[in-house]
Design a protein that fits this description.
The protein is elongated, with a radius of gyration of 27 Å. It has helices at 14-23, 31-47, 73-87, 97-111, 120-132, 150-161, 177-183, 196-201, 205-235, 245-248, 254-266, 275-278, 303-306, 308-330, 357-385, 409-425, 447-483, 490-502, 513-526, 528-537, and strands at 5-7, 27-29, 91-94, 135-136, 139-141, 167-170, 173-176, 338-342, 345-349. The relative contact order is 0.12. It folds into 2 domains: 5-202, Fumarase/aspartase (N-terminal domain) (Fumarase C, Chain B, domain 1, Orthogonal Bundle), CATH 1.10.275.10; 211-327 and 384-537, Fumarase/aspartase (Central domain) (Fumarase C, Chain A, domain 2, Up-down Bundle), CATH 1.20.200. Residues 285-291 have low confidence and may be disordered. The strands form 4 sheets. The chain has a 3-stranded antiparallel beta sheet with strand order 4-6-7. It is mainly α and 543 residues long.
Length: 543
């Protein structure tokens, strides 16, 4: 049986969230967490849930602008239902299932910190839903990321309690939540008690779910970008002395040096990136091979080649920073109010941990660096199809019957279109604030949009990197008859072979280019090419 992820509220890692959200890895609540939650709730019920207790926000009062309205214990369960229904707004297409699953797990881990005061039965029900594959259908739009992601969390929670209107995905079909619970052998409904709705819907947890998956995807994207870069360097027979560690040490940014080292691993034993190889024309229309006139020394390459570590490096440094932010968020209590143990008693303090500004700013940064990563990749793709920049390769990489065969310029143009979209999307979302809820929420983070937008930026960038790989592999195929005596690097060859096992060369044209781009993009997303390269030359990031 696959080892479960133990939920403690203190040590959840990003990769654990990803493995449960995407891979369905089972989870379980730590025994001590279950005991702590039960003990805290017993105290609450014995001491606070009486009509004689002083006003305690959300336990016996309204919320937000109605915080001064006292709610009796007799009315409390009706208030939980009404509050959830009122918050269950939202619009737009459903969130991806993996994002909803991540959101559920993150809410469980937040409760496991034992600062929320919910019953253990609520937490266990979310755990059971994860393990049985019951995934709420949640609208993706409509959160401002201030009192948390109220709308998406309310839609998730409504499904969790078995609201008749709620839909879930279970066993490959969408159905009413109670029906799924019945089929799964669970109670069809569960009631919510004092404060539990507020605890469930507070926190920028939808934002965090998008963000954790995006950060994971961005690391894989950067590895693929190192590989696509090296494929282009070999295809253009670039000068690579500028990537030596002694050069990097002269301006020793951590990410820049690590990127250069990853390139050196991929390019190990290359003879293609040498002056001797640069003296051999890779192709000409008449079919002539071999050197004709001496080729002037390259001296130095264009920025998209020579400055790649200086552009890819900041992405790696940003990812390290973002991971620290997200790891802290994952293992935090984020609803309001929070409960703290003071000896044998507990106290309540209202705070603002539900505010999503940390996530919003981290996702703005991620969108920015991924956009730049896609932009420099697209500029390398442009050099590959432009005969004025490709050092002897045919225009559009049309090797046979140019004219009749338009080549792959259309693929490159697709990459440019995606970069243009990314440029528009990477405008900062975290500085956009409009007051909400009668000016109670007078500064919002916009974190859910920031994170959801960044997912789109990443999807675009994955296709841009796929285009560069497709073009660079085509360029290597065209040059191989002339340059077979000049071996490409160990990692480059592994990537080239992996690509050609899935997508044949398009030397004569006539291929359905969309399908080729999509197939390579699938390899990029899955990490298949990275796996093949690392099998050949070791971990790209092992220092």
């Amino acid at each position: 049986m696959e080892k479960e992820i133990e939920i403690t509220g203190a040590d959840m890692r990003l990769d654990g969230v990803v493995s449960a959200a995407r891979g369905g890895k089972p989870v379980r609540l730590a025994h001590q967490v279950r005991e702590n939650l039960s003990e805290t709730r017993r105290y609450i019920e014995d001491n606070w849930l009486t009509d004689q207790a002083p006003p305690i926000y959300a336990f016996n009062t309204g919320v937000g602008g109605r915080k001064n309205i006292r709610i009796t214990q007799q009315e409390m369960e009706a208030f939980q239902v009404n509050l959830m229904r009122a918050a269950a707004a939202g619009a737009g297409e459903p969130m991806p299932d993996e994002v909803v699953r991540a959101m559920m797990l993150l809410r469980v881990n937040a409760f496991a910190t034992n600062h929320s005061g919910v019953r253990v039965e609520i937490v266990e029900r979310l755990v059971d839903m994860l393990n049985k594959g019951i995934t709420p259908v949640v609208s993706s739009k409509g959160s401002v990321g201030a009192s948390g992601d109220l709308a998406p969390l309310a839609l998730m929670s409504a499904a969790m309690v078995g609201a008749a209107e709620s839909k879930v995905r279970f066993q490959g079909a969408v159905m009413a939540a109670p029906e799924a619970f019945r089929r799964a052998g669970m109670a069809e409904t569960i009631d919510l008690k004092a404060k539990e709705t507020a605890a469930l819907i507070n926190g920028a947890t939808a934002s965090l779910a998008y963000a954790v998956l995006a950060a994971s995807d961005a690391r894989r994207l950067l590895s693929n970008a190192s590989i696509s870069l090296c494929l282009s360097l070999e295809a253009l027979r670039a000068e690579i002395a500028c990537f030596e560690d002694r050069v990097m040490a002269a301006r020793p940014h951590h990410g820049q040096r690590r990127v250069a080292r990853s390139m050196q691993r991929i390019l190990r034993d290359t003879r293609r990136c040498t002056e001797a190889a640069r003296q051999v024309p890779p192709w000409n229309a008449a079919g002539a091979r071999g050197a004709v006139d001496a080729v002037p020394p390259r001296i130095q390459d264009a920025y998209s080649l020579r400055c790649a570590p200086q552009v890819h490096g900041p992405v790696l440094d940003a990812l390290d920073y973002i991971d620290r932010i997200l790891t802290t968020e994952i293992n935090s209590a984020t609803d309001n109010p929070l409960i703290f143990r003071d000896g044998d008693r507990y106290s309540v303090i209202s705070g603002g941990h539900f505010h999503g500004q940390y996530i919003a700013q981290a996702m703005d940064l991620l969108a920015l660096v991924v956009t730049d990563l896609s932009a420099i990749s697209d500029r390398r793709s442009e050099r590959l199809v432009d005969p004025a920049c490709s050092f002897g390769l045919p225009g559009g990489l049309a090797a046979v019957r140019p004219g009749v065969n338009p080549g792959l310029s259309g693929a490159q143009s697709t990459g440019t279109g995606l970069v243009l979209e990314n440029i528009a999307l990477c405008s900062p979302a975290s500085v956009i604030s409009l007051p909400a809820k009668g000016n109670t929420e007078d500064h919002i983070s916009n974190s859910c949009f920031a994170a959801r937008r960044t997912r789109t930026v990443l999807e675009n960038a994955q296709a841009v990197i796929a285009v560069e790989m497709l073009l660079a592999a085509q360029a290597l195929d065209i040059a191989e008859p002339s340059l077979a005596g000049f071996a490409v690097g160990t990692g480059t060859r592994a990537a080239w072979r992996a690509l050609r096992e899935e997508v044949p060369a398009a030397l004569e044209g006539g291929r359905w280019v969309y399908a080729d781009i999509e197939r390579v993009r699938t390899l990029v997303v899955a990490g298949d090419i990275v796996d093949r390269v690392e099998a050949a030359c070791g971990s790209l990031w092992g220092d």
